[in-house]
Structures are given as C-alpha cells and as structure tokens.
Write a structure and sequence with these properties.
Shape: elongated
Distance between the termini: 63 Å
Low-confidence stretches: none
Structural class: mainly alpha
Mean pLDDT: 80
Strand order of the largest sheet: 1-2
Oligomer: single chain
Length: 157
C-alpha cells in the first residue's frame, strides 16, 4: 500500500506539477506586490485620486464594498496572464511548432465531408466508405501526402 503511494508521489508529473504550483504562487505574490507598490499609485496619480485607491470603498445601506481591492486583483491577474503568455506559452508554442516541422505527416489526419452522405472521410480518399460513391480526392491533401502523380514519378527516378 505504501509502495504504491511512494510510486505515485515520486512520479515525474507530480513533482513537476508541485514545483510549477510553488513557482506560480511565488510569481503571483510578486505580481500582486508589484501592482500594489507601483501600478495602483500610478493609476491613482494619473486619475487625480489622492494616494492609494486600493482602499477605495463605497457604502450601500451600511454595507461596504471594497472596489479598489478588486481593481488591484484584476490588474494583477492581467499582468500575470500577459507575462505567462508572452514569456512561457508563446515561446513553447513556437518551440513545439519547430520540433513538429520535421515530423511525418499523418495522411488520414486531414478529414472532409463526403459531398453525397456527409460522412467524415480522409482528404485523400477517392471513394466514400459509407455510401461507396466515387469522389475527387482533395489536391492539397494529396500534395501533403506526396501522392500527386508528378511526386510519385520523382520518387521512382
């Protein structure tokens, strides 16, 4: 029973997730501190408010609504999201696209609808497996798959 738990805890995905959460929490605290220390006073100065508006409040029937704290949290969220997107997500997507560039193409991945029965068929198909009607293969899919007649002649030479 404990060996299964030990295997679960020491698996790479769990440790990576835990490290990611710890770093994310520290990063969120950093962005929140930056927002509170710099952005909020700058916005207060730019809008003509006096001092820090993070303590701004309005009252309805004796109930206080701290809208300044919400504005601070919203700004911190957008800064965090922008930094994560531009410094982590976007570079990883570009890196992944660069790594996938030389991967072999799955010729069945390009799907289209049969013009007669509207079943999903591969783009290179010349006959529908559902209604058995003959259809013209998609030229772009044939080109990607290297199945155009001129491509096949070059391979034989």
């Amino acid at each position: 029973m404990l060996s299964g738990f030990k295997t679960f805890i020491l698996r790479g995905n769990i440790i990576t997730t835990a490290v990611g959460l710890a770093i994310g929490t520290a990063f969120t605290a950093l962005v929140t501190a930056f927002t509170t220390a710099f952005i909020t006073p700058l916005l207060g100065w730019a809008t003509g408010s006096i001092g820090d508006y993070s303590d701004a409040v309005f009252e309805v029937d004796g109930v206080k609504f701290f809208y300044g704290k919400f504005i601070d949290a919203t700004i911190a969220f957008f800064i965090t999201a922008a930094v994560l997107y531009f410094l982590i997500v976007l570079p990883m997507m570009k890196f992944q696209a660069r790594m996938d560039r030389n991967k072999p193409v799955d010729i069945k991945a390009s799907m289209r609808d049969c013009p007669r029965c509207y079943a999903q068929i591969p783009g290179i198909a010349s006959r529908c497996p559902q209604c058995t009607s003959e259809i013209e293969p998609d030229q772009k899919a044939l080109e990607i798959a290297g199945m155009l007649p001129e491509q096949q002649v070059q391979e034989k030479v």
